[in-house]
Amino acid sequence: MEHLELFFKSIFIDNMVFAVFLGMCSYLAVSKKVATAVGLGAAVIFVLAITVPLNWLLDQYLLQPGALSWLGEEYADYDLSFLSFIMFIATIATMVQLVEIVVEKFSPSLYNSLGIFLPLIAVNCAILGGSLFMQSREIETLGLAFNYGVGSGIGWFLAILAIAAIREKIRYSNVPAPLRGLGITFIITGLMGIGFLSFGGMLTGGDEKKKPTKETAVEVENIKTETAKELADNTKIIE
Q1: Residue 187 CA to chain centroid, in angstroms?
Q2: Where residue 228 falls among pLDDT bands split at 50, 70, 90?
Q3: Which own/partner contact pairs does 12-15 have at CB distance under 8 Å and 24+ positions apart?
Q4: pLDDT at 227 over 80
Q5: Are 136 and 52 in contact (CB under 8 A)?
Q6: pTM for the whole thing?
Q7: What residue segments make up the domains of the chain, in order of their start?
Q8: Residue (of 132, 57, 51) closest to 98 by Cα position
Q9: pLDDT higher than threshold 50 for residue 224
Q10: Which residue of 40, 58, 97, 139 lies most exposed, with the fewest beta carbons within 10 A?
Q11: Which residue, among 192, 185, 189, 191, has the nearest Cα to 170 in the 3D structure?
């Protein structure tokens, strides 16, 4: 359930585009055609699925305060957390370079259509945001980190796919002249963001009530006894 909850939460509730508005530059620039949006979205899923677990390992065994204790007790006091941004970006840049080589090799047409935005994934704030959110939310295991990376990538993929499909359709619509282009795109993005906010209550219900423990029951009885004594004393004073 923990994996399932994190997966759906990262896709719908904490969507990179509609919840925290990360990765908007490529979201707006490469969403004119569905085919291009699918290619870039798949690349983002791959990069997030690889970089978030790798950065989790770096954070757990290298960057956190005391993470170097596995090297010996003399290293337990070292704190390399100030290197987080550099290490995370280095990992992301390496994976993006790998994606760029693979796309250029197997799909030159997609590589040409993506243009400068494929290497710009390295500085896409959604990619870095995935690793930083993983760190700030203190995700506990490597499996959960991989789950969060894939879910965040799918959420970004759904966002750019949806806006690309809508932009292809409104190309033939009678949009008012002042709103054509990015104007209507921003309005649609805002409306879609409001729609995704409705998923916020999807994982909040159904919490079971905690059964009172023996210690709690004893405390309640003591409170009742003390209250009864105070009432009796007050009654005597009034009389």
Answers
A1: 23
A2: low
A3: 12/155, 12/196, 12/199, 12/202, 13/196, 13/199, 13/200, 13/202, 13/203, 14/133, 14/152, 14/155, 15/155, 15/156, 15/158, 15/159, 15/196
A4: no
A5: no
A6: 0.77
A7: 2-207, 210-239
A8: 51
A9: yes
A10: 97
A11: 185
